[in-house]
Amino acid sequence: MALRLAEASGEKPSSDSLYRGEFLLKRPLLQALLPDPDDADARRVLLIDEIDRADEPFEAFLLELLSDFQVSIPEYGTVRAAHPPLVVMTSNRTREVHDALKRRCLYQWIGYPARDVELEIVAARAPEASRDVQAKAVAFVHRLRTLDLFKAPGVAETIDWCRALAALSVSELDPQSVQNTLGVLLKYQDDLARMDADTLAQCLTDARA
Hints:
By secondary structure, the chain is mostly helical. It has two domains: 2-102, no CATH class; 115-204. The protein contains eleven helices and four strands. The strands form two sheets. Strands 1-4 form a two-stranded parallel ribbon. A two-stranded antiparallel sheet has the order 2-3. Helix 6 packs across helix 7 and helix 6 packs across helix 8. The longest helix has 14 residues, at 131-144.
């Protein structure tokens, strides 16, 4: 629109007049470097979730941001953070990220939560399920995680399973109700095939114990 208006008035815009902040789309990475309009001294928090699902060019783009807390934009210039943001980056290890990116991070492994902690999470996120079903579901999922599965169910799957059980009015975990809803927990055919009747029954028994 600015170009059309300039052409209509007979102007010939220069690069300096075209590449200005008002024409720049400030997406999350750039926003994290800019000061908070409400508090210029506030420190931003940037969450980059599941970096392993991004492509390698995006990883390369992050190197400058994580090392110098700046972003270089061709024909616009370099945007530097007056107050470096706190950056939290997560990965599910679906692929290995580049060593150069790892060198710019402090590594912290986060495993599955303890049973009582997971039960508190499920109670808060799936209150429609009874407390008894929540407890038995969490115990069953913890037992599943001891098996050699391709993809063990996470906390999100436990929450979804409790919601599904509540929607189906399941008040007691039995082999049939678990078999009918197992696809909520396990997302790979090999894992589903491994859960034969005997294995499922044993997991239920161990969970109840």
